[in-house]
Amino acid sequence: MNLTVVNLAYLAAAILFILGIKGLSKPKTAVRGNMLSALGMLVAVVVTLFDRSIVSFEYIIAGVLIGSIIGGLMAVKVRMTSMPQMVAILNGFGGGASLAIALAEYYAKTHTSVTELMTASPFGVGALGVIAVVAISLTVLIGAVTLTGSFVAFAKLQELMKKDYGLPGGPIGNGLLLLVGLVAAVALCIDPTNATLIIVIVVVGLLLGLFLVLPIGGADMPVVIALLNSYSGIAAAFAGFILGNTVLIVAGSLVGTSGLILTKIMCVAMNRSLANVLFGKMAGSGEIISADEVYGGKVKSAGAEEVAMMLGTARRVVIVPGFGMAMAQAQHAVRELADVLEAHGCEVEYAIHPVAGRMPGHMNVLLAEAEVPYDKLVEMERINPTFEDTDVAIVIGANDVTNPMAREDKGSPIYGMPILNVDKAKTVIVIKRSLSPGFSGLPNPLFAMDHTYMVYGDGKKAVIDITAHLDLS
Questions:
Q1: Which of 15, 146, 205, 425 could form a disulfide with 231 if both were Cys (CB 3.0 to 4.6 A apart)?
Q2: What angle in degrees, to the nearest 10, is found between the helix axes of 57-77 and 30-52?
């Protein structure tokens, strides 16, 4: 294929990637952004395969068809509540692909006739040879970390793994393990043909991925997923250097940098240190107050009919979705409740916390599935000043992101974490199965406040019952 055509195709793919990521920054344009990115990747893959004559035309068609079928089945079969797990797995596959590319390139280079004759380094002489070895080493290390780390994240999100494990010394142990991997990489630069060193880097990377994510609890998974997504992009960028593929470098760099930016945003939203994220230590260490001390007979419950009466006179209602809404598959019922309220002349908005759920944008995805208008989804910074003018705030399955301890209790492990100021609304309705704590393990003083009413039960059923009574009011 003509080099000019290839470069133009790569440029077009890079532009599509950039436009795609820009589109993903807003719920309203997210679907279009996703389609543009997918189209860019299709162009890049097909042009690369034709350019290098890697496989025949038949294999290209077969690969596209098989991949499309698998992707289509995953899109149809995987429920919205399982999207975090799916994203984690896809991150792992991305890291694994980069790892496989690096190992294949290392094997190919070290088994050439040049190596057998010992007339030159298999990776080239001088700085170029060193850069090639460094690229392979880092791709192997980061790809292996991403592979096992993502699988652990999947297992935790799927609740296949409920206990937290870690190396002795925590971050120090992980730091020492990373140091071993980097020393092996330096040694490989000195002796590129020593296959034992590349094996050491692989093993260290796989173990590091395990022990970075194993100690992290479910509440911190949004940050972990964003970070692993960044790792997969960085590994892909290094793989692009190995293959000399420009578009892979561009795509990997875009994913890597956007993932790091998202990780930083998540860290701020959860009051976490990025350094602690990188070394697998994220939980705070404060004194946990007992639930009896917080609740102590102060909690009031209400039925669907009572809640409907409160909503019947409300002029402004804010709905606060959380992971409980996702588990109950209540997003469609919530949309129907909002429609009824709006039909009665009530203003309804949705308060979206950056880390509500188990991955960035989890609530946006669920509510978009229920066809909630994008302009009704209001970010935390914009919705918080409006709670004082809100007649009723309905919290559905959200816990830690509404906990006032993060704002008021300096001894709390979550102190400093930005939250939705739900407690400032005139009336608060909390729909929850029980008073069980969120992922932080902390009780929520919001549940015991004078203007808060608990509605116990399945989120979907509770919302449907409230809507039914509201229709009759």
A1: 146
A2: 160
H or E element, residue 37: helix 30-52
d(CA 217, CA 309): 39
Q: Strand order in 427-432's β-sheet?
A: 377-379, 347-352, 316-321, 392-396, 427-432, 452-456
pLDDT at 236: 92
- Identify the CA nearest to 362 among candidates 354, 373, 370, 372: 354
Checking if the pLDDT of 188 tops 50, the result is yes
What's the CA gap between 258 and 212, in Å, rounded?
21
Q: What is the pTM of this model?
A: 0.77
Radius of gyration of the chain (CA): 26
- Could you tell me the fold of the domain covering 291-472? Rossmann fold (3.40.50)
pLDDT tens, 195-225?
899 999 999 999 999 888 888 766 667 778 8
| CA atoms of 178 and 208, how far apart (whole Å) | 7
Using the CB atoms, write b or e for 317-350: b if 16+ within 10 Å: bbbbbbbbbbebbbbbbbbebbebbeeeebbbbb
Strands (E), 310-447: 316-321, 347-352, 377-379, 392-396, 427-432
Instruction: Specify which of 26-30, 72-76, 349-353, 412-416 reaches the highest per-range mean pLDDT.
Output: 349-353
* pLDDT tops 50 at residue 6: yes
Q: CA 348 to CA 90: how far, in whole Å?
A: 35
Query: Using CB atoms within 10 A of its CB, is residue 221 exposed (0-12), middle (13-18) or buried (19+)?
Result: buried
Domain boundaries, the chain: 1-77, 80-278, 291-472
Catalytic residues: 400
Q: Per the structure block, which two tokens stand in for 74? A: 């995953």
> What pLDDT was estimated at residue 115?
47
Residues 6+ apart with CB under 8 A from 48: 54, 245, 247
Full DSSP string of 303-336: -HHHHHHHHHT-SEEEEEE-HHHHHHT-HHHHHH
Structure tokens of 439? 């992922």
DSSP-derived letter for residue 433 is S
pLDDT in tens, 400-449: 889 888 888 777 777 778 889 999 999 999 999 888 877 667 788 899 89
